Amino acid sequence: MRGKLITLEGIDGSGKSTVAEKLQKNPEIKAFKPVFTREPTRGTLTGNVVEKAIQSDTDQLAELFLFTADHAEHLAKLIKPALEKGKIVISDRYSDSRYAYQGMTLKTHLENPLEWVKDLHRGWTIVPDLTFLFDIRPEISIERCGKRGEQSKFEKLEFLRGVREIFLKLAANDPERFIVIDASHSPKYIEKEVVKKIMEFLSRN
Ligand SMILES: Nc1ncnc2c1ncn2[C@@H]1O[C@H](COP(=O)(O)OP(=O)(O)OP(=O)(O)O)[C@@H](O)[C@H]1O
Ligand SMILES: Cc1cn([C@H]2C[C@H](O)[C@@H](COP(=O)(O)O)O2)c(=O)[nH]c1=O
């Protein structure tokens, strides 16, 4: 039987990586021996190029294609083989990050960037079985990122407001797949909520 793909999404500083770390240590989740991964990928040719691109003034369309190439590589080398082996895969960011972030960066290039970017993925990507959207006001997430001590070029209030809006739209349009989590709660509360929802999902599927 094909495995299950669970993704963690949200704006910068919404707490996805913190949740991913907690899930890796959680006994209920560990029992399923999930494969933990992320986008942009780490330590790969495509992931390294993306890393460089987002640290510089790369053209927005070029950036979309680099993120998408990284996604193709991620699918081919890790996601598909793991799902074919029946594994549960948990990815910190995935295609919805492209729809939301590049849906914003490409606003000046294209008439309907969200649909255009979604179309680009159609026919070859794998749609997640379950997606958690960690929803938070950018004012809070930016403050959190400040404390973390690094700043990406996407961590701007107006920009993240737009990204958040697209994420919420994606979730509203696909309520079967998305679970929206109020990410302003404590890490402990969020971990409990996410574990509960994953266990419910796995018991049904
Ligand atoms: N629920 C929470 N409450 C308060 N602070 C949090 C919470 N979750 C995470 N943090 C802190 O906020 C910062 C950002 O968290 P984290 O790196 O998990 O976010 P992220 O969504 O993975 O961000 P990015 O996508 O930008 O890498 C970290 O310093 C982390 O310790
Ligand atoms: C996958 C993906 C990511 N981004 C953005 C989101 C972040 O600002 C950075 C890097 O991600 P990280 O989780 O903070 O390491 O890149 C994007 O714009 N498009 C994407 O597809």
From TrEMBL:
State the Gene Ontology BP annotations.
dTDP biosynthetic process; dTTP biosynthetic process; dUDP biosynthetic process
Source organism per UniProt = Methanosarcina barkeri MS
Catalytic activity, as annotated: dTMP + ATP = dTDP + ADP
- Known EC number: 2.7.4.9
A single GO molecular function term of this UniProt record: dTMP kinase activity
Q: Which Pfam families match?
A: Thymidylate_kin
Enumerate the Gene3D superfamilies for this protein: P-loop containing nucleotide triphosphate hydrolases (3.40.50.300)
Q: What's the protein here called? A: Probable thymidylate kinase
Q: Which residues bind ATP?
A: G10, I11, D12, G13, S14, G15, K16, S17
**Which major enzyme category is it?**
transferase
The similarity annotation says: Belongs to the thymidylate kinase family.
Q: Which SUPFAM superfamilies match?
A: P-loop containing nucleoside triphosphate hydrolases
Determine if ATP-binding is one of this entry's keywords.
Answer: yes
Q: Which part of the chain is the Thymidylate kinase-like domain?
A: 8-193
Q: Which residues cross the membrane?
A: none
Name the GO cellular-component terms: cytoplasm
Q: Which UniProt keywords apply?
A: ATP-binding, Kinase, Nucleotide biosynthesis, Nucleotide-binding, Transferase
Asked if Amino-acid biosynthesis is a keyword of the record, the answer is: no
Question: What's the superkingdom here?
Answer: Archaea
InterPro entries from the UniProt entry: P-loop_NTPase (IPR027417), Thymidylate_kin-like_dom (IPR039430), Thymidylate_kinase (IPR018094)
- Gene name as annotated: tmk
